[in-house]
Amino acid sequence: MFAYTIRRLATLVPVLLGMTFIVFMMIRAIPGNPAQLILGQQATQEAIEGLTRRLGLDQPWYTQFFAYIKGLFAGDLGVSLKTNVPISEEIWPYLAATMELALVAMIIAIVVGVNAGIVSAWFQNSWFDYTAMVLALIGVSMPIFWLGLMEQYIFSIQLDLLPTTGRDNIRVPVDPITHLYLIDTLIQGRFDQFTEVIRHLILPGIALGTIPMAIIARMTRSSMLEVMRSDYIRTARAKGMKMFWVVYKHSLKNAMIPVVTVIGLQTGLLLGGAILTETIFGWPGIGTYIYDAISFRDYPVIQSGILVVATIFVLINLLVDLLYAAIDPRIKFK
Amino acid sequence: MKKSLFTLFALMLALSLALAGCSSGGDSGNGGDDEKVDPNNVMIYGRGGDSVALDPAVVTDGESFIVTEQIYEPLVNYGKDNTDIVAGLAKKWNVTDDGLTYTFELEEGVKFHDGEKFNAEAVVKNFERWAKSKDEEKFYYYKSMFGGFEGDEGHVIESIKADGDNKVVFKLKRPQAPFLKNIAMSPFAIASPKSFEGDKLSKEPVGTGPFKFKSWKPNDTIVLEKNADYWVKDLPKLDGVTFKVIKDNSSRLNALTKGEIDLMDGLNPSDMKKVQDNGKLQLFERPSMNVGYLGFNVEKAPFDKKEVRQAISHLIDKQAIIDNFFEGTAEPAKNPMPPSINGYNDSIQGREYDEAKAKELLAKAGVPDGFKMDLWAMPVARPYMPNGQKVAEAIQANLAKVGIEANIVTFEWGTYLEKTRNGEAPVFMLGWTGDNGDADNFLYTLLDKDNIGSNNYSRYANDEVHKLLLEAQSTPDEDARAELYKKAQVIIHEDAPWVPLVHSKPQLAGASKIKGFVPHPTGSQSFADTSFE
Questions:
Q1: Chain A, chain B: beta-carbon pairs less than 8 Å apart
Q2: How far apart are CA A12 and CA A70, in angstroms?
Q3: Is A125 an interface residue toward B (CB < 8 Å)?
Q4: Could you say which of A50, B388, B430, B493 has the lowest number of CB atoms within 10 Å?
């Protein structure tokens, strides 16, 4: 398994290089000169040309590309055109914000999704099954924008239960240490702030978790249905085992492989795909960081931001593959 | 499986503790606040985007200025709700009759947030930092407002000298009538010279203003706290101001309704009624300092004939555009600059919607049956035009009534500006937000023949207008200048290189407890005398 992991990690390099190349070419295909956007509508032609030169954007694309790759191998992600700060210095708080949100969203999605799927399969064609699957269908097709605003309207404004936006109470802000606020508040022993942070995570967590929740529920249901028709389950039931254990112990374990795959893919997608949730909930995450960079034509940030997210995505999928062996001992990596 | 999961969590915890160990040293300074801040007396300002940097001299975006305006102060200020000049760090000033020498008498006993003394030398050092840099990309506004850098031919400032501790003397090469208005702009606020070292101002701003910088979480919050040693007695009234980014306009309003923020800009016009109906909220209207217009490239047929341009002016129903696309939060424009600016000619009669008149003018121009044309519409929402595409469609429908067939064209914003500047667009929508609140910044910048290829997108050249505008630039007397600008507007109105469409008035919403907040036309204002009831 160790050799397998190393081999998989080695294949990451060409994958990420290829992806970097595609992103590099794509952002240069979008019209619009970063110098013009940085300097604004008022800028003179000379100013625009001067800045273009200083940013090296007048160089041929391959010179720019190799300079960027060279920097990457030296651990240099580049400098943001907008803020003039090295990306490696400014990216972590954004990433931490999104990771915290994605984690909560996935916990909600997995706990609710897997259980809804199991119960639906257990009581196939019951009212619960129909309701859950209709809700799942709605969940997959729900516009997050609308869902987020509705959540705010109902749970914050009408019922006054939860805050509408942000990661913490703006009036009593968290002092960032690791930028993972759940951990920061615990380290500082600020349990009042810890509960505040959790309260702030609930609504965006649900909004972000809805689509993966629905996908996980549907996947669990179909996978469970398949397993529950197999012979060993019939045997287990025949010997008089309680249905609960048949479902949660015997069936679930074998039904988990496709579900874990989906969970892995969805977790990766959440990291980059949290843009809408971040926009609605005033969440300073990596999605808005990259999105802002696109509208600003901040090439280094777009490139390195996507590279970082892609790396995490690929690593999560590797982790999922390794988890297969833990879940199902019949799987061996060679 | 359980064991490996446990190991994973243990590893994560260890990692975060290690990270905590690395960076906790830098944060220990935060605990030592000398004064107790009352969190209920801190105003939270919700906005749609983050600041780029907190050194006002190097930025051009409103989201940066709105913050730097609290931290730094210029020598002279704008009036509370207009662009007239009032005292700032300079309590008095004197201009010689030839308009070439400005002597500023500074406030005494003012200190920067880092404890350094504010004096004449500090002012000189600030101006030298900009003038000697010759760095157009960095100090963009300096170059554009003062005509260049030290040694450049266009540079308007001949010399700046300290005369004792409290007097600064500016000598100009030639008169620049809007000089005081330029000095009052946010980019030319005075920073502590000590803070220039290492170029850290962008992240660690140090000025003399009512609020001091405390912390910045990018794309989230910027926290400012009260400057207890502020030189104006009894100000500021708030204990601090926090700027919070909430991108979406509707959720920003949700946060305001819930009381998480106290004041917000970027209110959707369609949400105005919600704010009016809510007893805990109030509306604020920012006076306009912009113009949205439909421009003609006067070098391209048939728009080289002024009758055609006038005819199209008669085909645009400005009030209908305002009612439908601005929800009433704008006023119809008849001049190229808004009424808040000194020199606005109110005696000009705007061209009313009149199909018969338009047909008559078209016949006079030799195109009685209309023609085909491209109508360029901007792809993005601008302060002066929230929905260019929709407004273009409305214009298109009206033009069709007299047989003018308009084909709507658009490009990505950067490309749009570039192509329009190069004269590729025959008819285009565009607008302008004023920099310094001076008529020169509208009429000369946008319609003088000197600026063809730059901001004169219409390529309009009229020698008489040119003469008037240059004369106004070197006339120090404000009333005499205003007369010159009024004359220029009459000629521009007759020539109709644009159809001025609207002056929009951005809406803000705030908690009803807010007192003393007056939105300024420039888009940024000090919160020094804002308070909670």
A1: 151
A2: 17
A3: no
A4: A50
